[in-house]
């Protein structure tokens, strides 16, 4: 009997397997879902949530929220944030096509945005005295940037990977340098110099958009325009992504050589990706110029480029929802951080979450919190006993959180010096922390936490811009190490 | 004629600085095939270290040690400091990504670059500092022949950069680490199988590459350019251009590319247009890339699937 037991079981399991699969279904295909790499526990949660919500529901909710935002919010500042978000989403979409789908590393992408903005500025301001119709200008810009995208795409036929990144990077730099230098050109046939772009001074007094006699004077007009554009782009790009063009793009990204031998027109498709991305960026630039009514070349340089890249990569390159998410994080979060009240609360929340994630258990978490509190009191008592001069409480308290902390935190008189020391020590400790043994780690963690709070209150809260940049830089490095595919991207294996 | 000669001398000095930066890019690329975008910011850190060493030794006006010793200490400390920084950057931003996708180290490097720039902004504020070289090195130092003057600082920078390049060439060709480095650049898997400690060699590579950038940073300060947190971007790009023009991964290529770039830039400034010299430089790069995608001295890469 026992001899027959085993085969029967196997037969049974095989039968259920077959029933699950259905006739004519490949086992490999059927198990596809199970083979996708998922992290266990809390780390896999974003992915799980992402996969369990249907796409239409997600986009529908997003559309409703943005609709309500446009209809009911009257605050000009909030609307401006909304418009910036819209522009950022457009840029992320464009880059998502070039880098996310086609896998072309275009580090000069932001130049198309700048060209769109400067193109609009030149055709509708007093700079060279043209005030052309919005229809014509926008059309010229879209076609012009698309053409430029075509020209920039030509090197991509010969250059791969890093080399393409280099050439496009220099394309971006050439744009910046040309705009900077074109305020003082002397042509051989003319005596006087010509000022085309006004150099670093930028071009002010740009006309707003004007369609069918309606001038876009209110920022809300731009909001609606962007909402419609982004909605159209979302539909268009997600549909294109499902056609053979989209599939071919992704094939090129995975392996251009194999794609070519399968009959994919690699060069043509690369060009197509470049052209589409460039045209989207150009259009966004024109809207930006019209909304802002002034353009400065410094706004189209490397910092913005990194922000857009960060947005696309954060969300997950190759995913539209990811691009939106990344754009929200990259363009709204800085505004939130600008308000010190929010930034303080946000910082504490992040700190607590980090402690919880690193500590892993409730016990360790409590120990860490108590440890931080103890260190704080100890430092206050010790330094208080040494009677070192402190900054008066009212000078550094900026919100409810720091008011609460003021009973605990010791703030020396020279905040810049001590803050800098804390910054350096903190970096050294974090570096040491990642390489040391668990025992030392558990001792170090409260110290790092305390130094973090100290640094934040003493130095960073008052210097939002630097803080933001520091956070973005750290986030890029950490994200690449922990989750290179971004939050909503799918992990893939690169064949080398 | 003398004008041309003068421009050539200036160009060679500038080119020496570019070549040192370019060598850093090329060394790292040769070994790891990653573009170290944070290199320009390491150069910035080097310039800052040099500045603070100078201030620590009593400042430009009344240094506590002889000027020659002060400059020597500035170079040594800056090179050591940036070298260590290079090791730290490699450990935290690149080593975890060694088997990752091609794009990951690039983005990570962008992150490091932002971090370094803003850390410098936070620590040293946005003030532009100056080495104030002319107050302790007389401008009449140096020599001239046939109407071409080369002042002491330029001569020193030129000689030192050439000396460093020779030193590097000796290091790469003559030492065991250098040999191991070339082996890894040639075929990392085979090198591992031969018992080469890859981590150690990569650490050395980053140390040397960053130390060269640090030296270039101090030279830049001595040549009387401002020291500030954003100073790394353009020289970083130029050094990078030089590395690419010469053929990235090739050490003689980086030297050639650096000197060439310096001369072209200074000739463009002298004869064409001061405003457009950077545009001309970058346009030159694009042309070289299109005609010779592997650079002047680079080897033809074979695309492997």
UniProtKB/TrEMBL annotation, chain A:
GO CC annotation: plasma membrane
Location relative to the cell: Cell membrane
Transmembrane domains' residue ranges: 56-73, 85-112, 132-152, 159-180, 222-240, 272-295, 307-330, 342-359, 365-386, 416-434, 440-458, 470-488
Keywords: Cell membrane, Membrane, Transmembrane, Transmembrane helix
Entry annotated with the keyword Membrane: yes
Main location, first listed in the record: membrane
Protein name: Unannotated protein
UniProtKB/TrEMBL annotation, chain B:
Entry's transmembrane regions: 12-35, 42-61, 67-94, 106-128, 148-172, 201-223, 243-264, 271-291
Pfam families registered for this protein in UniProt: BPD_transp_2 (PF02653)
Localisation: Cell membrane
Entry's Gene Ontology cellular component terms: plasma membrane
Membrane disposition: Multi-pass membrane protein
Cross-referenced InterPro entries: ABC_transp_permease, BCAA_transport_permease
Keywords: Amino-acid transport, Cell inner membrane, Cell membrane, Membrane, Transmembrane, Transmembrane helix, Transport
Main location: membrane
GO MF, one annotated term: L-isoleucine transmembrane transporter activity
Entry keyword annotation includes Thylakoid: no
Stated family: Belongs to the binding-protein-dependent transport system permease family. LivHM subfamily.
Name of the protein in question: Unannotated protein
Organism for this UniProt entry: freshwater metagenome
Lineage of producing organism: unclassified sequences, metagenomes, ecological metagenomes
């Amino acid at each position: 009997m026992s001899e027959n037991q085993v085969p029967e079981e196997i037969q049974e399991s095989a039968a259920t397997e077959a029933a699950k699969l259905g006739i004519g279904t490949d086992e490999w295909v059927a198990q596809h879902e199970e083979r996708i790499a998922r992290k266990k526990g809390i780390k896999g949660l974003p992915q799980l949530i992402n996969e369990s919500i249907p796409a239409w529901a997600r986009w529908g909710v997003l559309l409703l929220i943005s609709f309500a935002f446009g209809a009911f919010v009257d605050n000009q500042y909030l609307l401006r944030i909304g418009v910036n978000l819209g522009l950022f989403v457009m840029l992320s979409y464009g880059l998502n096509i070039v880098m996310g789908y086609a896998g072309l590393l275009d580090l000069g992408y932001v130049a198309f945005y700048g060209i769109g903005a400067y193109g609009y500025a030149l055709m509708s301001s007093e700079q060279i005295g043209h005030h052309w119709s919005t229809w014509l200008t926008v059309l010229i810009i879209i076609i012009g940037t698309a053409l430029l995208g075509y020209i920039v795409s030509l090197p991509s036929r010969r250059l791969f990977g890093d080399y393409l990144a280099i050439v496009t990077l220099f394309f971006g730099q050439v744009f910046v340098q040309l705009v900077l230098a074109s305020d003082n050109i002397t042509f051989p046939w003319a005596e006087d110099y010509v000022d085309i772009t006004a150099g670093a001074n930028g071009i002010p007094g740009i006309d707003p958009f004007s369609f069918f006699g309606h001038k876009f004077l209110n920022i809300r007009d731009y909001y609606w325009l962007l909402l419609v554009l982004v909605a159209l782009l979302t539909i268009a790009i997600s549909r294109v992504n499902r056609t053979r063009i989209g599939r071919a793009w992704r094939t090129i990204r995975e392996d251009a050589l194999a794609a070519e031998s399968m009959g994919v027109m690699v060069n043509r498709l690369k060009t197509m990706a470049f052209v589409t991305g460039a045209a989207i960026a150009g259009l966004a630039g024109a809207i930006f110029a019209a909304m802002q009514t002034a353009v400065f070349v410094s706004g189209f340089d490397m910092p913005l480029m990194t922000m857009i890249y960060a947005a696309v990569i954060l969300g997950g390159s190759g995913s539209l929802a990811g691009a939106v998410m990344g754009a929200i994080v990259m363009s709204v979060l800085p505004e939130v951080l600008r308000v010190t009240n929010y930034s303080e609360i946000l910082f504490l929340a992040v700190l607590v979450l980090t402690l919880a994630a690193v500590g892993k258990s409730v016990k360790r978490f409590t120990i860490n919190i108590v440890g931080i509190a103890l260190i704080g009191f100890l430092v206050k008592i010790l330094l208080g006993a040494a009677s070192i001069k402190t900054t008066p409480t009212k000078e550094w308290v900026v919100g409810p959180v720091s008011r609460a902390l003021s009973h605990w935190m010791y703030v020396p008189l020279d905040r810049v010096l001590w803050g800098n020391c804390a910054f350096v020590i903190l970096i050294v400790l974090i570096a040491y922390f990642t390489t040391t043994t668990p025992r030392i780690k558990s001792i170090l963690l409260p110290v790092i936490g305390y130094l973090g709070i100290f640094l934040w209150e003493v130095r960073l809260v008052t210097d939002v811009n630097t803080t933001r940049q520091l956070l973005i830089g750290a986030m890029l490095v950490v994200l690449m190490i922990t989750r290179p595919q971004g939050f909503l991207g799918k992990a893939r294996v690169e064949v080398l | 004629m003398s004008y041309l000669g003068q421009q050539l001398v200036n160009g060679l000095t500038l080119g020496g600085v570019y070549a040192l930066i370019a060598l850093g890019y090329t060394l790292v690329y040769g070994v790891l095939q990653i573009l170290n975008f944070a290199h320009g910011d390491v150069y910035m850190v080097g310039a800052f270290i040099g500045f603070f060493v100078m201030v620590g030794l009593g400042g430009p006006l009344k240094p506590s040690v002889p000027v020659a010793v002060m400059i020597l200490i500035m170079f040594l400390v800056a090179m050591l400091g940036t070298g260590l920084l290079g090791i730290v950057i490699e450990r935290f931003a690149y080593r975890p990504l060694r088997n990752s996708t091609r794009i990951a180290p690039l983005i990570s490097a962008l992150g490091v670059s932002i971090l370094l720039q803003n850390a410098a902004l936070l620590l040293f504020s946005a003030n532009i500092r100056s080495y104030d070289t002319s107050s302790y090195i007389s401008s009449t130092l140096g020599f001239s022949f046939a109407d071409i003057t080369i002042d002491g600082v330029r001569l020193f920078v030129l000689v030192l950069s050439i000396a460093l390049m020779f030193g590097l060439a000796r290091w790469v060709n003559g030492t065991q680490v250098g040999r191991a480095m070339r082996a890894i650049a040639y075929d990392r898997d085979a090198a591992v199988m031969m018992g080469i400690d890859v981590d150690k060699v990569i650490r050395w590579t980053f140390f040397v590459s960053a130390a060269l950038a640090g030296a270039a940073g101090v030279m830049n300060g001595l040549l009387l350019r401002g020291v500030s947190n954003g100073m790394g971007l353009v020289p970083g790009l130029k050094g990078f251009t030089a590395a690419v023009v010469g053929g990235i991964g090739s050490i003689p290529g980086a030297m050639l590319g650096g000197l060439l770039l310096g001369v072209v830039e200074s000739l463009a400034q002298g004869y064409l247009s001061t405003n457009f010299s950077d545009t001309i430089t970058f346009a030159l790069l694009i042309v070289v890339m299109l005609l010779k995608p592997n650079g002047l001295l680079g080897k033809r890469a074979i695309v492997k699937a």
